[in-house]
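Q: Convert this sequence to structure tokens.
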Amino acid sequence: MIHSDKLKEECGIFGIVSHPDAARMAYLGIYALQHRGQESAGIVSSDRRRLHLEKGMGYVADIFSASRLERLRGTSALGHVRYSTAGESAAWNAQPILIDCWRGPIALAHNGNLTNAASLRHELERDGAIFHSTSDSEVILHLISRSRRRTLQEAFVEALRTVEGAYSLALMTPEYMLVARDPHGFRPLSVGRVDESYVIASETCAFDLINAEYIRDVQPGEILRIEEDTLEPQLPLPKEQPAFCIFEHIYFSRPDSLVFGRTVNTSRREMGKHLAREHGVEADVVVPVPDSGVSSAIGYSQESGIPLEFGLIRNHYIGRTFIEPKQSIRNFGVKVKLNPVREILRDKRIVLVDDSIVRGTTSKKIVQIVRSAGAKEIHVRITAPPIVSPCYYGIDIPTRHELIASTKSVEEICQFLGADSLGYLSLDAVLKAVQDSRNYCSACFTGRYPSNAGNGKQQGLFEIPERDRSSSE
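A:
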């Protein structure tokens, strides 16, 4: 396996209601969202009587053949791409999750992370619930099934009032789709329109591929009911201070997406400009670490006047696994992904622009590759502050002790990387770049969480709460 030190994208969802080519539209939608999750993908469709599901492990284009899409009959569809933040990477955790309960067939697709999923699951299992996955998303379906509320929509609201944490999700029945976003609005979710049909997506780049028109974002705490050509909004969840994930603009989202009301490309260019102001240096060339560092590197180049060159080339055709040669090759994993353009780097003072440093291991290897290509000086510039705390809202950030910035100073990290200098963008500058100093979550940089999730280590779904341990042994 080629392991990356990058933060892992959470998940992506796409839904479409009342369209004659729903399954293929959903296929294109999650194809555009592939960057948000590469472990598994799935689509469920509705013919207004039954739900039909196809899903598997791997990339969207590898899972969905023409014959599988033909089996997805109907005029509504809900798709999902997954990277696991809760629950292991396995076929039984692929989404959408489809169940058949006394309320009828229901499918769920979820982006985010439920911070109280472990305790809720434990309580449900004590009451006799049987889980078929280790995903936190399944908890919501059990809460809906066990609710005594009269309608499914009322049970859905009750379930969402019970769970805590981050969720942008869609629930599909044969007749309609329910869409919801948590009261803090951690994860993005947008509504669009194509051919008189409503569509929803984690990012607007999915709308562009199918020529859909962006209408608006789903508001924090909002639930939408979409049935045929009608959209009914309601705000039944408690009002909270918005806490949009800042890493959507730093790294996760595609630069061509509109996220939280602002284009990602604009935010990243502004981050690069602020980075040049805060950490300017005499150099010959600005080199982005592809792909997420490109927009910021353009901004750095524009502000500093130092020319931009693509001195690292990324191989975009790497599968999920790669077999190494029996004889060890230094930095093999990074070399498979990135290769230096030696004539650009040789004898040059390089500004190397990247989005973040997590453990530091990959960044160190990239610096070594640039150095071995003949660079005279390497000045690493990062368009985010140091990451010092884990995330509980849908990003796979390692534990605190694994984060290099939680135990080392900037000078020590620079020495570890083997760079000539290292500069992180300040949090104030990041917030100026997105033009919003109040509504973003920056807990991974500050340790200050917008909810009580950060009070302790998040429990895994199979961990037994301490208060119940004695009775179970």
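Residues 149 and 155 are 5 Å apart (CA to CA).
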